[in-house]
Every structure is written in C-alpha cells, then in structure tokens.
Amino acid sequence: MFSVSSFSQKKLEVFFDFNKDFPKQSSILTINEWMASNRNIEIIKLLGYCDSIDTKNYNKKLAERRIESVRKLLEKSGLKFNKNLEKIAIGKDFKQSKIQAENRKVIIFYNEQQIKTNESELTKQIRNSKVGETIKLPNIYFFNNSDQIVAKSQPILFDLLTAMEENPRLKIEIQGHICCQLVRDINDVSTARAKTIYSYLIRNKIDRKRMTFKGFGISKPIHKIPEKNENEADENRRVEILILEN
User: Fold this and answer.
1) Phi, psi (5° rounding) for residue 12?
2) Chain centre distance of CA 20
3) Which of 128, 131, 144, 196 lies 20 to 30 A from 27 at CA?
4) Is-contact 93 56, C-beta < 8 A?
5) How many CB atoms sit inside 10 A of residue 126's CB?
6) Number of other residues whose CB lies within 10 A of the CB of residue 205
7) Which residues pair with residue 49 across a beta bridge?
8) Dmax of the chain from CA atoms?
9) Using CB atoms within 10 A of its CB, is residue 61 exposed (0-12), middle (13-18) or buried (19+)?
10) How far, in Å, CA of 223 to CA of 18, rounded?
11) What gap in Å lies between CA 15 and CA 224, rounded to an integer?
12) Measured between alpha carbons, how far is 187 from 184 in angstroms, rounded to an integer?
C-alpha cells in the first residue's frame, strides 16, 4: 500500500570508457544502487554524449549505441518508460569539459514519485530491536568466493540504509559469515563481505562512526560444517548486524 504525494524531475549521469558503448564498471554499480532505491519512477528522456575525438558522424552513432545500452539496462530492471520517451544522440556537439572522461556519458532524466510506503520487515525489526540483538540480513547474495553483491540483493541494502537514516542513534556492527570451509576462511571472504556492506552505507552518507565490520569466517555456524545440504550452507553463508546502540 502506498500514497503518491508529488512528482519531481531528476537526472542521473552514466559514464563510459573511451570508444565504448557499455557503461564503465563504476557506473554499473551506481545504476544498480539507483535502480534498487528508485522503483517508482518514470524514465522520460535519454541524452547521449561523446568526447571530442573522432568525427561528428561517428560520435553521433556511438552516442546512439550508448543510449540503447542504457535503455536495455533500465528495461531489464522493470522500470517504467514514458510512452513519449525522448532519445537524443548529441555526440560531440555540446560544450565539452576539459576532462574528456566527463564527456562520455548518457544522462537519464526521470520523474520521481514522492511516496509514503509501508515499512519493510527489516526496518521494523531494526526499529524494535534491543542493544545486543543480532539480526540477519535476508536475501543478501554474493558471487561465489567474492565480496561482490549480486544485483537482486540491492533492495535489502536499501532497507538497511533506510533504517540507518531513520534512526540516527542506531549504531551497528556488520558481521560476515561463510559456509563450507572445514579449516578456516582462507581468503578472509567473510570480512570482505561485511566491509562491502559497510562501504555501501558510507557511500550513501552514513557516518562511519556509527558502524564497524568484522568477519567471523566459519567460527559461528548455524549448522554444523560440513553442511548436509545447500539450504544449510545458505543459512551459514550469511551477513548479520549486531545492534550496538538504538
């Protein structure tokens, strides 16, 4: 259930490497986070730009490919497009920045609905928690033996961010755990995964003084290792937050 209060037009810039028509990795991370926290928007315009290198005609075609690449990313996410979506390839015919990397971009213009939504279960749980309580972050998934979070886990990160923003007294320790290893966390993946969530909150302007992170490896399994099945492995392979202040 939600109620719409107003609309506002905003924009997001997506950047590309030289002569590439797919966004650079740092912009992919930005887009994933943006899409996870902006589910009630409408895309109204895509503008494509290039640097000053190469011909006018080549750069316009490159700008068109960049627009299409971004459009496909947005479409896969399920975001809404205005029926009169504008796609304008400007190429290099604009006032160029002296920093060429700033010219290789697509600008996404969108309408944002200002809405009031029901709290997520995680937000409620955190709001009602007591000091010393440990809360598992549900549906946090990483690529195998990696600290890189898969895109479908972004909504739960946004829920955690929302809880931190709405509860300025809240302080937490982010705790990482892994599964399956019989001896130890060989590559310290549990710490790296906890740090990934810590870094996400810092990038979104949560004061680092409100957070710490720690990896526990296989020292605190829910199920005995080796696990009997994949479900037990999933439950051991987790990230939790310890409430330090609330």
Assistant:
1) -135, 135
2) 23
3) 144
4) yes
5) 24
6) 9
7) 91
8) 64
9) middle
10) 49
11) 46
12) 9
Task: Please report, in tens digits, the pLDDT of each residue of the chain (246 residues total).
Answer: 333 444 568 999 999 999 999 999 999 988 888 887 777 789 999 999 999 999 999 999 999 999 999 999 898 888 889 999 999 999 999 999 999 999 999 999 999 765 555 667 888 899 889 999 999 998 887 776 778 887 778 888 889 998 999 899 999 999 999 888 877 877 888 999 999 999 999 999 999 999 999 999 888 888 998 889 988 888 888 899 999 998
Inter-residue contact 178 to 219 (CB < 8 Å): no
Tokens 């946004």 belong to residue = 158
Q: pTM of the prediction?
A: 0.56
The closest of 246, 227, 134 to 182, measured between CA atoms, is 227
Structure tokens at 118: 């029901």
d(CA 63, CA 15): 12
How many residues in the chain?
Answer: 246
Residue with tokens 């996410």: 77
